[in-house]
Amino acid sequence: xxxxxxAIGQGLLWAVLGVGLFLTFRILDFADMTVEGTFPLGxxxxxxxxxxxxxxxxxxxxxxxxxxxxxxxxxxxYTKGHIPILLAGILVMTACYSVNLRIMGRAxxxxxxxxxxxxxxxxxxxxQYFDSVVLGTIVMVVITTIVIYFLQTELGQGxxxxxxxxxxxxxxxxxxxxxKIMGLMVSNGLIAFGGALVxxxxxxxDVNMGIGIIVIALASIIIGEVAFGDLTLNQRLVAVTxxxxxxxxxxxxxxxxxxxxxxxxxxxxxxxxxxxMLPVFKNVLNFKHILxxxxxxxx
Amino acid sequence: MTxxxxxxxxxxxxxxxxxxxxxxxxxxxxxxxxxxxFITVLxxxxxxxxxxxxxxxxxLxxxxxxxxxxxxxxxxxxxxxxxxxxxxxxxxxKLGTAPRMTVAENLLLAERxxxxxxxxxxxxxxxxxxxxxxxxxMHNGLDxxxxxxxxxxxxxxxxxxxxxxxxxxxxxILLLDEHTAALDPRTGQxxxxxxxxxxxxxxxxCLMITHHMEDALTYGNRLIVLHHGxxxxxxxxxxxxxxxxxxxxxxxxxxx
Lengths: 299, 256
Fold this sequence. Notes:
The structure holds 2 protein chains of 2 kinds.
Chain A: H1 2-28, H2 35-51, H3 56-79, H4 85-104, E1 108-110, H5 121-124, H6 130-151, H7 154-164, H8 166-171, H9 176-202, E2 204-206, H10 213-228, H11 233-256, H12 264-276, H13 278-284, H14 287-295
Antiparallel strand pairs in A: 1-2
Chain B: E1 4-15, E2 23-34, E3 38-42, H1 49-57, E4 64-69, E5 72-73, H2 79-82, E6 86-89, H3 103-111, H4 124-136, H5 155-168, E7 173-177, H6 185-201, E8 206-209, H7 213-218, E9 222-227, E10 230-236, H8 237-241, H9 245-255
Parallel strand pairs in B: 3-8, 3-9, 6-7, 7-8
Antiparallel strand pairs in B: 1-2, 1-4, 4-5, 9-10
């Protein structure tokens, strides 16, 4: 029971990453590697700020701002510097590693004995693991609502159009460069925000905690899409959170099967690869189609 | 009706600048477009027709000369800024619409062409009745598919939608770049007829590139021919009405 609660709580906290990545991966339609750097950047920022006595809520919001700045740099390299997005992301991700070490002063900083969002007396009064469920739910409801509202505004529609058809967007007077920069900023802000949450939940920040983050964030998006099928854009955003929770249950299952936590990145990559290849398998394994074709006398 | 709306003066545009492959596409091109002109643009491949549109639209920057809109030089304005007065329909139906957005959403995007987009809710539902009426004028079933993603429409429907989007918010200048060329002949002719209706009803100023000599003769009040980056033929009003395909063919034979 407590394992299931823990999985739900973790799924909710990590879902922030899925929603953040959704903005670039699904809407702007490119893979932004920056997130591997901004996740630990958010964690480092929050942990350093809290260690220096900042209020945990402010520290978490500060992580969002710093993450957005990293996204701004990727966006400028990509749109104004004409560096391909994959490379622009990798450059900022690499640079973030050094920045994170600077912020933390060493590779791993503990929050032991420090105040965190989870030590708020309301959350601390809850049974074990329920703190992350409650906080995660609040965070995801707020973030998903804001994102859904934004996508339905005039500006949000311009943002969607930019990812959908750049030529058309420009011909309608939408500044596509600004839209991409904005998307990268919000996306990386959210990822850093998620990093700040996870660091406070774990009780430490580690400079290597960004490795494989893009796979985990993609997994929540893809698993949500695979599990729930045809959805509207708004429903898909909600599905990201559910996908993130499902993903935690899959990991739980894998650990139960006897794999160690060290195997998780390999397993995550395999799960994601399988989910992304599902459309191909569907065609290959479409027995219904094969049967029908076999019976069709015109063939 | 004879006030110059858009003037191109000695416009030079080169590609592959400062390389051995440098080519001059527009070579001191001069063109005065009056308000209300419906100009058909003819010319062989490489004559500079699409480049002319890209120069007006701002996708390509010019090397020298002036582009004046109501007397004001706009040659250095961004593509986004120029969309305040300019609307375009491309040849490729895929270029004019956002495939994952619905027909109604595409129309709504076009409604704010060139305007600031803020954080106000888009208000799609207020427009649906209007869009229903508007798309019904296309007589191709578009009005039944307002909530369909445009990626699922036929090429003809997509192109009709692109045309509606370009004219939804009245443009001062409408550029049609062979917008019926990718369609089957019947669908193409239907769209051509609708284009003509809309342009004359709304008294739009319009430039239309076409490879169909019949279309170029049938539609519009003025016909120009581009050759080697210059306007080599320009007939308006009665002169244009007196043109025939034979005369045009012999003219083309002369300049080639």
